[in-house]
Specification:
Layout: E1 2-6, H1 10-21, E2 25-29, H2 32-41, E3 43-46, E4 53-55, E5 59-61, E6 70-75, H3 82-88, E7 93-101, H4 108-116, E8 123-134, E9 137-149, H5 157-168, E10 174-175, H6 179-200, H7 204-209, H8 211-230, H9 239-248, H10 257-263, H11 271-284, H12 289-298
Parallel strand pairs: 1-2, 1-6, 2-5, 3-9, 6-7, 9-10
Antiparallel strand pairs: 3-4, 8-9
Helix pairs in contact: 3-4, 6-8, 6-10, 6-12, 8-9, 8-11, 11-12
């Protein structure tokens, strides 16, 4: 399978390297020092869970036009690069190309599909803690869950083919018949965790440990839950409680990527999370006061300082 990975960072690099190791025809679309390192010495992965490995040679470029149409495109850019990224992958799109986004947000597939055509789109989520430790090196810390599926629900031959390829690469992927539920559950969790951790500049443990910030987190999640139900997404009745329990099983020192970016003076995905929640709330007539407060408190930091 000819595969293009748009964004070779913590997510794209981690999964793309595993597919390349299994013999798939993978090209990484990268930039800067990371791209230079991939061209010079390949891709290294360090993981206490799947083991360390090194691919001495990988295909890598900063120009998707050099790749040509692919069978599968993994979209793993940051939310604030989504619009430019969608335009950039147009040379990768052939008649039967499938595009699967693995980035934060609940409307990313639709946003990409508006550029490349919705017929090419599937939905996807990933739950993993991995990052570029240095150019050419992906370091994986914990979690390894990737779920994808048809946006309209059900199964498909193309989904089964992608699933078989990923299992061959020892990636424990799941093919969901209700990917919208998975997408909204992840968004519900991250909107609250990323928002409250970034607002308080605290890791997950202290946010959950204080009754007041825990209550704010739960309230933030319930606002997103109300949006999902308004849009007809079939979340289970105990979704918020389930996700709060899941949060309690995470390491207390866990920092969501938005807090890490905030601390480093980088752009943050505020519009991906609170910005989207507030906008949808206004469109659907659903109050989102906690998310509005978080958005207001953080919006002056959205563009970063670095």
């Amino acid at each position: 399978m000819k595969i293009a990975v748009m964004g070779a960072g913590g997510v794209g690099g981690f999964y793309g390297a595993r597919m390349a190791r299994a013999g798939e025809d993978v090209t990484f679309i990268a930039r800067g020092p990371h791209l230079a390192a991939l061209r010079e010495s390949g891709m290294r992965v360090e993981s206490p869970h799947i083991g360390d490995f090194h691919l001495p040679q990988v295909r890598a470029t900063d120009d998707p036009a050099q790749v040509g149409p692919a069978d599968l495109v993994w979209m793993t850019v940051k939310g604030y690069d989504l619009e430019s990224g969608a335009r950039a992958i147009l040379p990768l799109i052939g008649e039967d190309t499938v595009v699967i986004p693995l980035l934060n947000g609940v409307e990313v597939a639709e946003d990409i599909g508006a550029v490349v055509g919705m017929e090419h789109m599937m939905g996807g989520i990933v739950q993993v803690s991995s990052a570029i430790a240095e150019p050419g090196l992906i370091r994986h810390a914990l979690m390894d869950r990737l779920v994808f599926g048809e946006l309209g629900g059900g199964s498909s031959a193309r989904g089964q083919a992608i699933l078989a390829m990923m299992h061959k690469a020892d990636i424990p992927a799941e093919l969901s018949e209700e990917i919208q539920v998975e997408v909204w559950k992840k968004f519900l969790f991250l909107d609250g965790v990323a928002g409250l951790s970034s607002l308080t500049r605290k890791t997950l443990g202290p946010v959950l440990g204080d009754p007041d910030t825990r209550a704010l987190l739960a309230g933030c999640m319930r606002e997103v839950e109300a949006l999902a139900r308004k849009k007809g997404v079939a979340l289970e009745d105990n979704t918020v409680e389930e996700l709060l329990q899941f949060a309690a099983t995470r390491p207390p020192e866990m920092k969501p990527s938005m807090l890490l970016d905030l601390e480093r003076g980088r752009k943050i995905e505020l519009d991906t999370f609170q910005g989207t929640t507030v906008r949808l709330g206004k469109e659907l007539g659903v109050p989102t006061p906690i998310n509005e407060f978080i958005y207001t408190a953080l919006k002056l930091h959205a563009a970063g300082t670095a």
